[in-house]
């Protein structure tokens, strides 16, 4: 399948997909981050079509932090969700790591794209060392089930701060705490992709119940 329009790479399951998962990267990363690759492998192994894609700023230049308008990146997220929804039937799950997850959550909060579950990795509750600058003002407008996978040593938000942020979301939430992990969610003891996918599937099934 051709995903050049969104600079995307698809991980295809064997057989008909149960649905589609659309994931993007953090501020300094790209679609090839180890976390995104492992997440998409996990989803594909469970029968889902999983797509990891580059945000518009990353399509413009291969390295460096986000440049230009975040609104342009959000428009790219809307486009990616629309493209991926056309690839298969079934539910659509969207999200991303850090900046990419935050921008996706803003798209969903604004009602600019329809998703069945939101899955956020290392949500940046605030800039490191600056808890007085929370990035949570849009969270009450999120009305879809949301998974937040977060390291207990993440400088962008403590577990308590993340729980407070999740409580603002007006839909079922599940927090997946990765003990000892920092912002990259690296763990030598926990299977982060499996835990995150388990949580998303539980929320999706709860929605259908």
Automatic annotation (TrEMBL):
Gene3D superfamilies: alpha/beta hydrolase (3.40.50.1820). Pfam families: Abhydrolase_11 (PF20408). Residues 20-187 form the KANL3/Tex30 alpha/beta hydrolase-like domain. SUPFAM superfamilies: alpha/beta-Hydrolases (SSF53474). Coiled coil: none annotated. This is KANL3/Tex30 alpha/beta hydrolase-like domain-containing protein.
